[in-house]
Amino acid sequence: MVFLQSTFRRLGSLLLLLFLFMVLLPNSAFALDDGLLENGDFEEPPSGGFGGAEEEMAVASSIPGWTTNGTVELVRSGQKQGGMILIVPQGSHAVRLGNEAEIGQELMKLEKGSTYAVTFSAARTCAQLESLNVSFHESSSLSSSATVDLQTLYSVEGWDAYAWAFQAMGVRGDTGRIAFRNPGMEEDPTCGPIVDNIAIKKLFNPDSSSKKSKNVVINGDFEEGPWIFPNESLGVLLPTNLDQDITSLPGWIVESNRAVRFVDSLHFTVPQGKRAVELLSGKEGIISQMVKTTQGKQYNLTFNLGTAGDKCRGGQPLAVMAFAGDQAKNTHYAPTGNMTHQSSNLTFTAKAERTRVAFYSVYYNTRTDDKSSLCGPVVDDVRVMSVSAGVFLNQITRDYHWLMMLLALMFLTSFRI
Ligand SMILES: [Ca+2]
Ligand SMILES: [Ca+2]
């Protein structure tokens, strides 16, 4: 009996220790870290080394961290092909995907139900239509994917960073596979997109914080979004996600064919906090959100409109078209003094339980220095607040005031009688 009691006591102590160990261990030990994927920049040399030949081609299966399918090459910065120098977005190396070629990586420690944003840099090698398919797989049948069009070059550097998001459903426990594939079949097999700098970030839904402030816009300050490398100065393009439930910019939909740019305060001028959205391509770049409203109630949409500080001024002015329900307003950027942003507002009466709030750039702007990089006005700090509540309270106070006067009058009159 005594022996049993002591055994149970020891077991109890052991369980307690185990529990404390689990609680005290940093969360990161159980979760996938944000940032660069394993050899996500392709700078880790393959087992045989990178080689030094002018036309180098690494053995596809030897790229550390990645599995490959089809013709996958490691390309070097400055490498020539025909008369063209291949573009490597970051560092000295990147991969090129040949016809229907694919690279993939197993992701571990994914959190069931969580949304992950994937940031990657891509460049095209030939003038033909080139695109890149990015997908997430948890089983052979279940996957989500998107094809990013690389035809439009947004920056003069010859490459752009893009973001895409997926949700981990936990079908295969905490693991899944991410893949990048060239869906094209070109006559010239040396064509095909170049991919580099692949990072991941677990997104949180900033829904709860908005309840306290009575602002019904989710992530209206754009502080939550995909990973931006601190040393990458081009921002991150957010391609259309109209037909997807999952977004790399929580709360928001890019509902146009063209992308908008997610910018950070390290490389751009941002009206509020550390992140904002730069609208590109005029009416072809639209961001929107369906916000919760009460039918018949009056609301005020306010937002900041500014310059990204990327030499976008000059030539065409900067202007934003804002929509809230059936109301629309065109605001031209005309800051006072040294301000780099200004506020604008739009009042509307909700016609339904959900109201669409949307923004696009009125003009098609390009940078004044290179005359080809797409740029535009920056939008930040979007809020939709009910004004009816305030009006209603004022009304009550006013009514109450009259009621008090009336009661006082009746009281005095009753004395006279
Ligand atoms: Ca690289
Ligand atoms: Ca912001």
TrEMBL record:
It comes from the Eukaryota. The keyword Methyltransferase does not apply. It is found in: Secreted, Cell wall. GO terms for molecular function: enzyme regulator activity. GO terms for cellular component: plant-type cell wall. The lineage of its organism: Eukaryota, Viridiplantae, Streptophyta, Embryophyta, Tracheophyta. This is DUF642 domain-containing protein. It comes from Zostera marina (Eelgrass). Keywords: Cell wall, Glycoprotein, Secreted, Signal. Gene3D superfamilies: Galactose-binding domain-like.
